[in-house]
Write a structure and sequence with these properties.
The chain contains 11 helices and 11 strands. It is α/β, with parallel strands linked by helices. It starts with a helix and ends in a 7-residue tail after the last helix.
């Protein structure tokens, strides 16, 4: 309880001065009433004892509800706010593009349920950790396009990420196109650090931009490229054909990732190549990248508030309504 009260601040505290007016009104009414009523002397009160019922006693205290309502209204007008969060934040100021492979092989079953689903889930957890960074999303298969430009609205980014599907683009693996599109999105960034995380499970076999040419572009603009090869070693149950109804036909196929190319891209740009053969390893890779990319810029204090004046307002209205109902029903008096 003390912690809750300690987190409450008032946006318009001068309204709380009304609380001091209420005792003054009560004192004024008390002294005014004592001077108006002349005392009457009775030899005994037995004759009127039955007339002084509990209703009359309650009626005397009924105005208290009105004064409590006035107090609650004064508190509501002062706009109490609860401090939800107060923290010292070390802003990292990093712009990150996630470049994700959507070729049909990303549906391979060596990850549960498949490579694409796991890659999306792990990437979303990575996004959650980068609270103050701008992050964008690029996808590629036989060609590439920007799914989400750089943004700090990570909820929108994760929505687009969750809805990625194989088949959105012509099939193939255009690593150079994916990297070039990501670099194009970052080239005008004024961020202190620019990072591309490119995830693929195959060999470059499509697109008109060579991967190393795209890497040269990234290097020219001081972009660091982390590459991730996704897939088990050996063979995996992979789409090998597609039926007329659009469904994939699966068969065992050798996992072939151009690790030499991915390593060269990362080496050229000052990044690092990773190989993920299962979900746990992919999680560790993103954790490592998260730790590698920490660039503190400045310290800011953030406060977030939640208005709670409605609660006091409801109490005030409730007390006024209660007084009205009591006066019109069980405590009603004849004029």
């Amino acid at each position: 309880m003390n912690n809750i009260l300690g987190n409450i601040e008032f946006s318009s505290p001068y309204w709380l001065l009304l609380l001091a007016v209420i005792p003054a009104i009560l004192l004024y009414k008390y002294y005014s009433k004592s001077q108006e009523i002349e005392p009457m002397t009775f030899s005994t009160l037995e004759s009127i004892s039955d007339l002084y019922s509990w209703k009359e006693k309650a009626l005397k205290y009924l105005p208290i509800l009105r004064y409590l309502a006035l107090a609650a209204l004064a508190i509501a007008m002062a706009r109490p706010q609860q401090t939800l969060k107060e923290e010292v934040v070390k802003a990292e100021g990093i712009d990150i593009i996630l470049a994700m492979d959507l070729s049909s092989s990303m549906l391979a079953k060596d990850f549960d349920p498949d490579r694409l689903t796991v890659s999306k889930e792990v990437a979303a957890k990575f996004v959650d950790k980068r609270v103050y960074d701008r992050i964008g999303l690029v996808v590629f298969a036989g060609t590439s396009f920007t799914q989400t430009p750089l943004t700090t609205d990570h909820n929108i980014l994760k929505d687009f990420l969750a809805n990625l599907e194989c088949g959105m683009l012509d099939d193939g693996t255009a690593i150079g196109m994916g990297l070039a599109t990501a670099a194009n999105r970052l080239k005008d960034s004024e961020s202190k650090s620019k990072v591309i995380i490119l995830l693929t499970d195959g060999v470059n076999n499509a697109g008109y931009i060579k991967p190393l040419t795209a890497a040269e572009i990234a290097k020219e603009y001081d972009m660091k490229v982390y590459t991730i090869g996704v897939g088990t070693t050996g063979a995996a149950l992979t789409p090998v054909n597609r039926r007329n109804d659009g469904k994939f036909v699966f068969g065992m196929s050798k996992v072939n990732i151009d690790e030499k190319l991915l390593s060269e891209i990362s080496s050229m740009t000052g990044g690092k190549y990773f190989r993920a053969t299962d979900e746990a390893m992919l999680n560790r890779i993103y954790d490592e990248i998260d730790q590698l990319e920490k660039t503190e810029m400045e310290v800011n204090v953030f406060k977030r508030y939640k208005d709670i004046f409605r609660f006091a307002l409801m109490i005030a209205l409730g007390l006024l309504l209660l007084e009205f109902l009591l006066r019109q029903t069980i405590l009603r008096t004849l004029p």
